Fold this protein.
Amino acid sequence: HITFDDGYKEHLTAAKKLKKEYGLKKEYCSFAINIGNSLLSDFSGMDLIYNIIQNNSIEELCNYLSIINHQKNCNIEFLKEIYIKMSISEIESIKNSFKFNKEILKNQFLNKQEVIELSKLFNIISHGISHRDLRFHKDFSKKEISDSKKLLEKLCNKPIEVFCYPEGKNDEYVWQMCKDSGYKFSLSINHAPNNPYKIGRYCINRNIPELSRDLNDA
């Protein structure tokens, strides 16, 4: 089963090619939609951080976050680890404190009509709203997991049964939130046997040698 994360524009192009040229069946492919970027037209995840740095500077953002010795320690990966643990209010505070260009969203992420079109070709699954680590600030996480399902179901007019964890981050509390929200399965990176809420995947950009080895052994 192939999955595409985050809802980028090129995913619709890829879906059409997979359907037309390869005849891939709907049940063999899913697209995880990041609600914040696509349906709410608002930056989330590292796309927000990249855009802030592009329109300001990494030093300004590091100073804002009060990172000590930021010249040495504050880089993109470090900022990512900070962002995914933030609360919604902290993320909104950053948005209100820095310049960033929302127009980029229109060219980078699927809009509502494109998500609907994509849903007619393959499965749509939820990837949350703010693309942060759902193990933190669990009250926000519960709402995010539930609301993203409702928004996608209303838009696509079909059940959304699978949740894809942002950054693959999860624990037993997040599993339960997904179950309580009505999801039947959840996708992670690492696999847990006999657990429908921690189904592992291969990240193609990182695990091509491992994937090739397993395919050869199959």
Notes: The first strand starts at residue 2 and ends at 5. Residues 45-101 form one domain. The chain has twelve helices and five strands. The radius of gyration is 18 Å.
